[in-house]
Design brief:
Number of domains: 2
CATH topology of the largest domain: Ubiquitin-like (UB roll)
Strand content: 15-25%
Order of helices and strands: EEHEEEHHHH
Helix content: 25-40%
Distance between the termini: 62 Å
């Protein structure tokens, strides 16, 4: 590349990315510099994963990669080749909300809702690894996710209710 020139996004080499997204195998040609966030939102139309800070600070883009929370805004899509990626869209089954999603709804765990998908994905990872966490463990698991609307009490309440298996109202 000549000094002083910039490569356009279209100039980047595309290679085949093979992975599983929400339980479905995928195989797509993806530019080497594509972020996981952009791949999910733009290529797959999975817009539940939110673009917040673009710097890995707010957690709105949290998805699960092989069951572990990962910030999609700071993860290259090709770095998750061969992995299982789960987004908020993958938690509901046959049009029914998961227990955790229901708990967020019933216990008012979201205000504007922008941070909710990332919060739920971080909480999902916690509950899979520790089905009955205490409130301190819930707060620690959500520490990387910011909410600008609440004091986090209702969010922690929602996760605790899901952990207790509280029935739907």
């Amino acid at each position: 590349m000549v000094a002083g020139t910039r490569r356009r996004k279209e100039d980047h080499v595309k290679t085949i990315l093979r992975l599983s997204v929400n339980g479905k195998p995928r195989e797509d040609a993806v530019a080497d510099n594509t972020l996981l966030l952009d791949y999910l939102r733009d290529a797959l139309g999975l817009t539940g994963t939110k673009q917040g800070c673009d710097g890995g600070e707010c957690g709105a883009c949290t998805v699960l990669v092989d069951g572990q929370p990962r910030l999609a805004c700071s993860t290259l899509a090709h770095s998750v080749a061969g992995c299982a990626v789960e987004t908020i869209e993958g938690l509901s089954h046959e049009g029914k909300l998961s227990q955790l999603q229901r708990a967020f709804h019933e216990h008012l765990g979201s205000q504007c809702g922008f941070c909710t998908p990332g919060m739920i994905m971080a909480a999902e990872a916690l509950l899979r690894n520790k089905p009955t966490p205490d409130r301190g463990e819930i707060r620690a698991a959500l520490a990387g996710n910011l909410c600008r609307c609440t004091g986090y009490v209702k969010i922690v309440d929602s996760v605790a209710a899901a952990a207790c298996g509280e029935p739907a109202a």
